[in-house]
């Protein structure tokens, strides 16, 4: 079976692409460090991704190169920069890792940012490995074990950003990176749509049409986002559930629908009927009890409710253990 659901699903709102910069060109960040564009890796309607190296660096290893994300000066990339400076400072991430006795947390490390030619804004990240999208583009279904390994790592990141007043609001394979090694490091990147749902500790009120509806990858965004309400913690957890189903079963009830209102109608229909959603996706195959437990919990969350991250994590981890897997093992596709 192949993947009918893909992260490169229709985006509701297309923004004009920025004019690409030439490979070999240099940009200077706010500290004066210069970075040379080595290779253009990808281009979308809103951003360009380059492999870059620090000018004057002696290392020729590709592994030591960084990633540069380039976007229009006043575009979504500005929102991502704000999130990184406010909620993802390296000292805050390190403190969280120590407090929670973790070995790793997949928050991208931003090592530089700046403006270029008065019309571009750029962010520079440490190497995060390969995008999960490159795996799903090959129409591969992921094993339940691989999906649970990914979900556990992403859930850790979500708990961290949620505790820092933000939600991601656009979880999909394009925004997940995997750095293989002795252990697989899973990064959740792409904070263009990050939303401060709890400024100064005060949760925003649920108001439909208070924001542009349908923002993000249509296939995976939450019903809250479809309706133009500010995304909340439940929105991220529900999006992760849709991704898990897609990666493992290859389909969702709304796969192939181009109209975002029709997608939202389907999501509404299945919100209160998780068994029907699972039955559709798994077909004649045995339904995963871990998926059922996770989805039942996150679909029942109220808009401003604090999720029980420990219970969600424990359920996924226990299922992973039953399959003979662990977070210590590398993820295999």
UniProtKB/TrEMBL annotation:
<feature type="compositionally biased region" description="Basic residues">
    <location>
        <begin position="1"/>
        <end position="13"/>
    </location>
</feature>
<dbReference type="InterPro" id="IPR000719">
    <property type="entry name" value="Prot_kinase_dom"/>
</dbReference>
<dbReference type="Pfam" id="PF00069">
    <property type="entry name" value="Pkinase"/>
</dbReference>
<feature type="domain" description="Protein kinase">
    <location>
        <begin position="35"/>
        <end position="320"/>
    </location>
</feature>
<dbReference type="InterPro" id="IPR050235">
    <property type="entry name" value="CK1_Ser-Thr_kinase"/>
</dbReference>
<dbReference type="GO" id="GO:0004672">
    <property type="term" value="F:protein kinase activity"/>
</dbReference>
<dbReference type="GO" id="GO:0005524">
    <property type="term" value="F:ATP binding"/>
</dbReference>
<dbReference type="InterPro" id="IPR011009">
    <property type="entry name" value="Kinase-like_dom_sf"/>
</dbReference>
<feature type="region of interest" description="Disordered">
    <location>
        <begin position="1"/>
        <end position="25"/>
    </location>
</feature>
<protein>
    <recommendedName>
        <fullName>Protein kinase domain-containing protein</fullName>
    </recommendedName>
</protein>
């Amino acid at each position: 079976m192949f993947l009918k659901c893909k992260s490169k699903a229709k985006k509701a709102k297309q923004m004009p692409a920025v004019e690409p910069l030439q490979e070999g060109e240099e940009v200077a960040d706010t500290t004066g460090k210069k970075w040379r564009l080595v290779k253009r890796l990808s281009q979308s309607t809103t951003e360009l991704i380059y492999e870059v190296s620090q000018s004057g660096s002696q290392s020729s290893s590709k592994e030591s190169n960084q990633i540069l994300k380039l976007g229009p000066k006043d575009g979504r990339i500005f929102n991502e920069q704000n999130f990184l400076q406010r909620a993802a400072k390296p000292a805050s991430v390190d403190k969280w890792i120590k407090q929670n006795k973790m070995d790793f947390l997949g928050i991208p490390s931003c090592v530089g940012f700046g403006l270029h030619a008065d019309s571009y804004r750029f962010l520079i990240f440490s190497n995060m490995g390969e995008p999960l999208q490159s795996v799903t583009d090959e129409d591969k279904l992921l094993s339940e074990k691989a999906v649970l390994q990914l979900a556990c790592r992403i859930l850790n990141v979500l708990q961290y950003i949620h505790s820092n007043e933000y939600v991601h609001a656009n979880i999909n394979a394009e925004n997940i990176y995997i750095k293989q090694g002795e252990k697989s490091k899973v990064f959740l990147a792409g904070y263009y749509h990050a939303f401060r749902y709890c400024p100064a500790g005060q949760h925003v009120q649920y108001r439909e049409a208070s924001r542009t509806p349908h923002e993000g990858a249509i296939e995976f965004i939450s019903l809250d986002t479809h309706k133009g309400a500010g995304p909340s913690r439940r929105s991220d957890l529900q999006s992760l559930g849709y991704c898990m189903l897609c990666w493992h079963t290859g389909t969702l009830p709304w796969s192939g629908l181009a109209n975002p209102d029709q997608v939202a109608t389907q999501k509404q229909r299945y919100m209160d009927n998780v068994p029907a959603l699972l039955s559709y996706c798994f077909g004649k195959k045995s339904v995963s009890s871990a998926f059922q437990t996770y989805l039942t919990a996150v679909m029942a969350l109220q808009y401003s409710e604090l999720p029980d991250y420990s219970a969600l994590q424990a359920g996924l981890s226990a299922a992973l253990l039953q399959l003979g897997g662990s977070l210590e093992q590398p993820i295999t596709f």
